[in-house]
Design a protein that fits this description.
The structure holds two protein chains of two kinds.
Chain A (H helix, E strand, L loop, with lengths): L11 H57 L2 H14 L5 E8 L4 E4 L13 H4 L9 E3 L4 E10 L2 E11 L1 H49 L19 H63 L3 H29 L10 H17 L3 E6 L9 H18 L5 E9 L2 E8 L6 H8 L13 H13 L2 E5 L6 E8 L2 H7 L1
Chain B lengths: L9 H20 L2 H4 L4 E5 L8 H15 L3 E5 L3 H9 L5 E3 L2 H6 L4 E8 L5 E2 L1 E6 L14 E4 L5 H12 L5 H4 L2 E4 L3 H10 L4 E5 H10 L1 H4 L2 E6 L3 E2 L3 E4 L6 H11 L5 H10 L3 E3 L7 H13 L1
Parallel strand pairs in B: 1-2, 1-3, 7-8, 7-9
Antiparallel strand pairs in B: 3-12, 4-12, 4-13, 5-11, 6-9, 6-10
Classes of the chains: A alpha+beta, B alpha/beta.
């Protein structure tokens, strides 16, 4: 509805024909007005000429009778003139003598002999011999003075019926209206078809990039490319060339991301091996102690406790890894334990770089957000913070909920995230940071955010380092969107 | 078509054609000697529908056949012109009104008198518009009145005599008068409203009710005079016995004896022509005297 009321949003195929129709309408009004004015001028000129000829003929025939005030002959001449000048459509013709008294009229009942014509009727005539037209009453008025040797002998007054002329004018008007309307409709339809033909290539250009919003850019098929000599043919080919290049870059990015993933996996496996290896030494020592001094209750108890502690540690590491990397068939809510598992996953990195972490997890219930991508995104940021943080420094992690939003705030005291990488993170649907291989993990975070509908803010605290804030909407629909 | 104006029913048009054809046929049968004799010049006035050229053609055709002479029909606007031509000998005969005949009785001789509805008499009518409620001439006071001709009996003298008998004159009784120079014109003037009333020949008005009913329909007869002598065909006294006049009289009186003559009489709505005595017009002389006495 809003689009209908907003002309700028109308399609070009509609706007252009409507513009043509509007211009045609304005043109029609201007032309019709001009034609009707000219027609009216021509009709008035012809009417003036015709009525002049009528009065001249009548004057010459009745002048002797007017001089003699011969009532019958004047009437007879007026009466005969009605048939002789049938094209004039005289309604009333009155002949008066030099004093203005009626000698005879074509309609004696309305204009009796010997009387003077009504003043109201005489006022409709001009002072000179010009014709006056009363369109409202469909009448024209013209008179002719009768003079003999320069003396006033009388006059003839004629009231003409011009309804035929006005009907002709009306017929011309309707002819113009109908013709112009038909032409406008025809040109509008032609304009619509022409615009459809013209914008078809543009619509093709508009449609193909949209089709590939979630994957490789779709190429325009060869059968739609058209001739390479046409503008759009060349444009389509340039588009396809750009699409191929973009697709190649996307494929390369994905391959690099996969390699990065494998590298991360290697680091994770290395960390896991370290985590498992650490307790293993103690566990073997405990086993040796049991083997050697197993008869001692205190040694046995201590060794068993150490074995349990070591196995528990191994179990936690294995379980966290399983939970993190196990492919899930359906999305599930994020639990407080999922967040705490992140600490276990980065523990090797923390230990490797002798980092401390301020861990504040204020989430105490399962949240309606997709657990897997969110935790993966947070893990990537945490690993990135570990990598960036100087040895022996302190990290900060805060998980909180507020106004239906889940927020992770991760702070390190590193050199600070480069601006271009921060922009890459913050820009939804941004391009990959290739050829810089360094930001691949962050680019994957961006993709995970796009997938979950989350957003990210990067800040650089005055005391140094980087603060990254991850925000996720908590709605029941969020799980379905990810699914 | 020879008609100048007015309409004639189709049946009449056929009759005109038949009669004209008969006249033409008869003319072809005449001996060559007949056409070689002197011409008859005959004057006509609006005592009948002399505007109908078809009637004039039929009349001319009949008279030429019946007299064996060529005939010239002479028309003028006024009765006076025809009377003057007749008296001055420029016409052999003329169909004039009873009034000029009586007025010039010493110089004119009767040739024949038309017979209408069985007698050589007719009436003068006073007519008004069909919407008028006047019952007699008294109701026409202050009218614009149309007369036919100042030398017309029915179209002027009768009304003047009627008013004179009351001690009135037309110019004082009517607000305005004018002459239309033709009984048919009087009917047109009254029908159109140009005149409120008019004096007209009764015979012409009755014929018009058949020939041009659309004109008479708009008029109403409010007064009919007594029967008066029908407008006669007269000749100058000195030429009363001329062969042309004798031949003309015989042709007129014999009109009802031939098919072509009967066809012409049908067009004229007359029974025939007859000889008559000048005393037929004595009543007109009386009216002249009444008017003269008033001065």
């Amino acid at each position: 509805m809003n689009r209908i009321l907003n002309p700028p949003s109308w399609p070009t195929t509609v706007k252009a024909p409507l513009l043509v129709a509007l211009l045609m309408f304005l043109l029609s009004v201007a032309i019709s007005n001009r034609v009707l004015l000219r027609l009216a001028e021509t009709q008035e000129r012809h009417l003036g000429t015709l009525s002049g000829a009528y009065l001249d003929g009548l004057s010459s025939s009745i002048l002797p009778h007017v001089l003699r005030e011969d009532v019958w002959e004047v009437f007879d001449a007026l009466d005969r003139s009605r048939t002789l000048y049938s094209g004039v459509d005289a309604v009333e013709t009155v002949a008066v003598n030099s004093t203005g008294s009626i000698i005879a009229a074509s309609n004696p009942a309305a204009f009796p002999t010997g009387m003077k014509p009504p003043d109201g009727w005489l006022m409709r005539f001009s002072d000179n011999n010009q014709i006056l037209i009363d369109e409202r009453n469909q009448r024209a008025f013209v008179h002719r003075a009768l003079t003999v040797q320069g003396q006033n002998a009388g006059a003839i007054f004629t009231e003409l019926d011009i309804s035929t002329l006005l009907l002709e004018r009306e017929a011309v008007l309707w002819t113009l209206v109908v013709t112009n309307s038909a032409l406008t409709l025809l040109l509008t339809a032609a304009g619509y078809l022409a615009m459809r033909f013209v914008v078809t290539p543009i619509k093709t250009l508009d449609a193909y990039p949209n089709r590939s919003a979630d994957g490789p850019i779709e190429l325009i098929p060869p059968e739609r490319l058209g001739s390479s000599s046409s503008e759009f043919g060349r444009l389509f080919r340039r588009y396809n060339a750009m699409a191929r290049a973009a697709n190649e870059r996307l494929a390369l990015t994905e391959r690099l991301a996969e390699e990065e993933k494998l590298a991360s996996l290697g680091r994770l496996a290395s960390g896991m091996a370290h985590e498992i290896n650490n307790p293993l030494g103690g566990m073997f020592n405990a086993l040796d102690a049991i083997e050697r001094y197993g008869e001692r209750e205190s040694v046995r108890a201590t060794s068993v406790r150490l074995l349990k502690q070591g196995l528990r540690g191994i179990r936690d590491v294995v379980r966290a890894t399983l939970v993190t990397y196990r492919a899930e068939e359906t999305p599930r809510p994020l639990t407080p334990q999922d967040i705490d598992d992140l600490r276990l996953l980065i523990k090797p990195e923390l230990q490797r770089k002798e980092l401390a972490i301020d861990w504040q997890n204020r989430v105490d219930v399962a949240l309606p957000v997709a657990a897997m991508p969110i935790r993966q995104a947070a893990l990537n940021i945490l690993l990135n913070a570990c990598a960036a943080a100087p040895k022996g420094s302190k990290l900060s992690f805060k998980a909180n909920t507020c106004s239906n939003r889940l927020t992770f705030v991760i702070t390190d005291r590193g050199a600070g995230l480069p601006k271009d990488l921060a922009r890459c993170l913050e820009t939804s649907g941004g391009v990959s940071p290739i050829p810089s291989k360094k930001g691949l993990g962050l680019w994957m975070v961006r993709r995970l955010l796009d997938e979950t509908g989350g957003d990210i803010e990067v800040n650089w605290p005055p005391q140094g380092g980087t603060t990254v804030r991850l925000n996720f909407r908590m709605t029941q629909g969020a799980l379905r969107d990810v699914a | 078509m020879l008609r100048l104006e007015g309409k004639v029913p189709k049946s009449q048009s056929r009759r005109h054609f038949v009669s004209a054809a008969m006249c033409a046929g008869a003319a072809l049968l005449l001996p060559p000697r007949a056409l070689a004799t002197s011409q008859i010049r005959c004057g006509l006035t609006p005592v009948f529908l002399n505007n109908d050229l078809e009637i004039l053609a039929a009349l001319k055709g009949y008279l030429e056949v019946a007299t064996g002479r060529s005939v010239q029909l002479v028309l003028r606007r006024t009765y006076q012109e025809i009377t003057s031509l007749l008296i001055s000998g420029q016409l052999d005969a003329a169909w004039i009104c009873g009034f000029p005949f009586v007025a010039n009785k010493a110089e004119l001789a009767l040739v024949a008198v038309p017979v209408w509805r069985g007698q050589p008499l007719y009436q003068s009518y006073l007519i008004t518009g069909d919407q008028r409620i006047a019952a007699n001439i008294d109701g026409l006071n202050d009218d614009i009145h149309a007369f036919s001709d100042p030398d017309s009996n029915s179209g002027y003298l009768v009304t003047c005599a009627l008013l004179a008998s009351k001690g009135l004159r037309p110019n004082s009784f009517f607000s305005r008068t004018f002459f239309a120079y033709g009984h048919r014109n009087v009917v047109r003037a009254v029908g159109a409203g140009l005149a409120h009333s008019g004096s007209v020949d009764g015979y012409v008005w009755e014929v018009m009710t058949v020939v041009e009913p659309e004109l008479t329909r708009r008029t109403r007869v409010i007064y009919k005079s007594e029967w008066l002598g029908f407008p006669p065909i007269a000749a100058a006294l000195g030429r009363a016995q001329a062969t042309e006049v004798i031949a003309l009289r015989q042709a007129l009186i014999d009109m009802s004896q031939s098919d072509s003559g009967r066809g012409l009489l049908k067009l004229l709505y007359l029974d025939g022509f007859a000889g008559a005595d000048a005393s037929l017009f004595d009543d007109i002389a009386v009216k002249m005297e009444i008017v003269r006495r008033l001065g």
